Structures are given as structure tokens and as C-alpha cells.
Amino acid sequence: MLMSVNPGFGGQGFIESTLEKCRTLRAMLDKVNPEAGIEIDGGISPKTIGRMAEAGANIFVAGSAIYGQDDYAAVIQEIKKLAKY
Length: 85
Known about the structure:
By secondary structure, this protein is of the alpha/beta class. The chain contains three helices and three strands; from the N terminus they run βαβαβα. A three-stranded parallel β-sheet has the order 1-2-3, covered by helices on one side.
């Protein structure tokens, strides 16, 4: 699991350097266990999830992007689409 925000509370901004960390981790895992998942926690939103998926992540914690929205199902559907699930 990679944290893409500073731990502590929800709604923080996404830390861009997590993208490179994810790419590096994906390359390392591909050598020993290509089926291993990479989980990203924090800052996941429709704006960031596609880039994280492209960097190799495939498990996402998206709290603030969903909670507080009028239509949870629509937001979840949009996020899944952007993550190419």
C-alpha cells in the first residue's frame, strides 16, 4: 500500500510523487509477483485515479471522493470507469 496523502485526516490533496513511487513498485513487483496488487490510499478522485491506474495501482481507497456526494453510485461508477475496471 502506498499513501498518496500525509496520514491523519480526509480530504487532503494528492501527493504527485506517489505516481513515480507506484511505477517503481510496479516494476519491482512485476519481477517477483506480477499478480500482486498495489493499493493507493488518499487523494483518490476522478481527477487522479486514471493516472494512478496507469502507474500500476489496481486497488484504491476513495473516501472523500465518494462521501458527501449526492449520488454515491454515480461517483463510484465514474471512478471505476476512469480506473478502467
